[in-house]
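Example for tutorial group B:
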């Protein structure tokens, strides 16, 4: 049902995964609304507002020399989408980790990510790269 596929949502999702893969922290943070709410992962203390996003970035990207993150399935609805994703990362030690999850995005009228809720287990990733 293409009618549910809001181009603002599609654009935000594409840019989100590209920024993580490219290691573009500034670009990634710029994708979010100033008053965003980010639960990544769900269960951790949420990041409130764009100024709190560097802490989220450290969890997602800093442990790795390189990361490839891709959307596997995208389910659009209204001003958001749920995305099943896979990722693989290589630590500076050379160890690799594969991890996966589901993220739910809500996007503002101007295409910024307002809310992000990601369901995944960072412990699984850290154990893999720690050996």
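The residue assignment follows.
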């Amino acid at each position: 049902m293409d009618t549910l596929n809001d181009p603002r949502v599609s654009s935000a999702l594409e840019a989100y995964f590209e920024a993580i893969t490219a290691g573009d922290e500034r670009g990634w943070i710029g994708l979010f609304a100033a008053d965003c709410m980010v639960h990544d992962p769900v269960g951790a203390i949420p990041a409130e507002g764009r100024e709190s996003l560097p802490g989220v970035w450290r969890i997602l990207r800093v442990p790795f020399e390189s990361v490839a993150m891709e959307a596997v399935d995208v389910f659009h609805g209204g001003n958001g989408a749920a995305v099943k994703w896979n990722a693989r990362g290589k630590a500076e030690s050379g160890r690799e980790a594969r991890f996966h999850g589901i993220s739910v995005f809500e996007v503002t009228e101007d295409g910024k990510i307002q809310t992000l809720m990601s369901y995944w287990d960072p412990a699984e990733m850290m154990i893999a790269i720690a050996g």
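The two ends are 44 Å apart (CA to CA). Compare this with the pattern of hydrophobic and polar residues in the output above.
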